[in-house]
Give the backbone structure.
Amino acid sequence: MEKSELEKAKSFIVVEITEYVPNAVVIKTVIKKMTGNITVVSFDSGEALTEKTSPFDTFIQVIDGQAEIRINEVSHSLKTGDAIIIPAHARNVISAKERFKMVSTVIKSGFEEVVT
């Protein structure tokens, strides 16, 4: 087992995997493999991840609070229980107008070609 992963065959409460930290984004790895990863992330109010792209689709589910997710300049507001898929190669920014927690899941099914 990779040290950064959670212990296997042991139950946990997903929203309690990571705590809110003032003025910070906290990332906790649940599973990290060559074929994909699952992380739980907490954002304090006003915090954001820098704009990025990924060669893979990314599934985001908000598990506490409310998130603002911009995908290719289109803004989406998600609240607890909402989910969205960020398409491969899409420019995206995830930010917190108020603090929130999310689960991020990436499945690497192979390099996704850019469709032109």
Summary: The chain has a mean pLDDT of 91. Residues 1 and 7 are 8 Å apart (CA to CA). Residues 14-107 form a domain with the Jelly Rolls fold (CATH 2.60.120.10). DSSP finds no helices and seven strands in the chain.
